[in-house]
């Protein structure tokens, strides 16, 4: 049953082609290698920011750092587009790395905007020191290695990935409820909205898939 639930939510965001997906404990993960990388990157940066920046007055990165983070999108574009138009054949290792590179930078733009202080002149860029960039990067690399070499049990790994998917969509949905004053109520609305959206996407995917 848990396996079916994980694959149901994975279907909301992924084609779930088996030979483009990684495995753990002999089971295929609920999302492909590229999407697995994206959410490993998202988790690593989100975890760091929530642990060390949640009480700080932060805003989005500086222009120079933002341009660097945008460059991290390029590997996935090249790998995905090159594979799609048959310029070269990709593999799961490349998909995982390029996906991680893409996902790693996203929370640096989203997370600061969740704070009411993000637009204040006194707020500091979310990336102020080298550790703000390299600590999540090392975590991403470590998690990517654990996933690629199948060193984590299936349910732990797949559950962690799908939970990250739900958290990410819930954070995106939280902007719809910025008017709600109580944090716990805003969080509840956001999670509910994220789950409903993913459920609808999964059902729609199920209808249109052969």
UniProtKB/TrEMBL annotation:
UniProt-recorded name of the protein: DUF2085 domain-containing protein
InterPro entries: DUF2085_TM (IPR019206)
Residue ranges of the TM segments: 36-53, 65-87, 93-111, 132-149, 155-177, 189-208
Top-level taxonomic group: Bacteria
Species for this entry: Neobacillus novalis
Coiled coil: none
Signal peptide interval: none
The entry's keywords: Membrane, Transmembrane, Transmembrane helix
A Pfam family recorded for this sequence: DUF2085
């Amino acid at each position: 049953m848990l396996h079916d639930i994980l694959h149901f939510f994975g279907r909301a965001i992924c084609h779930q082609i088996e030979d483009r997906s990684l495995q753990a404990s002999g089971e295929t993960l609920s999302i492909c290698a590229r999407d697995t990388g994206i959410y490993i990157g998202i988790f690593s940066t989100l975890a760091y920011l929530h642990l060390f920046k949640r009480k700080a007055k932060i805003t989005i990165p500086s222009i120079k750092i933002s341009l660097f983070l945008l460059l991290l999108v390029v590997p996935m574009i090249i790998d995905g587009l090159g594979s799609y138009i048959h310029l070269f054949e990709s593999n799961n290792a490349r998909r995982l790395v390029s996906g991680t590179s893409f996902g790693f930078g996203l929370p640096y733009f989203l997370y600061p905007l969740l704070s009411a202080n993000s637009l204040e002149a006194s707020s500091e860029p979310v990336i102020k020191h080298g550790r703000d960039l390299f600590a999540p990067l090392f975590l991403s690399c470590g998690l990517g290695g654990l996933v690629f070499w199948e060193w984590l049990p299936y349910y732990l790994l797949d559950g962690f990935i799908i939970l990250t998917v739900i958290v990410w969509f819930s954070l995106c949905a939280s902007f719809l409820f910025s008017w709600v004053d109580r944090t716990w109520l805003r969080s509840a609305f956001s999670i509910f909205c994220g789950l409903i959206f993913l459920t609808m996407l999964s059902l729609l995917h199920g209808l249109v898939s052969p």
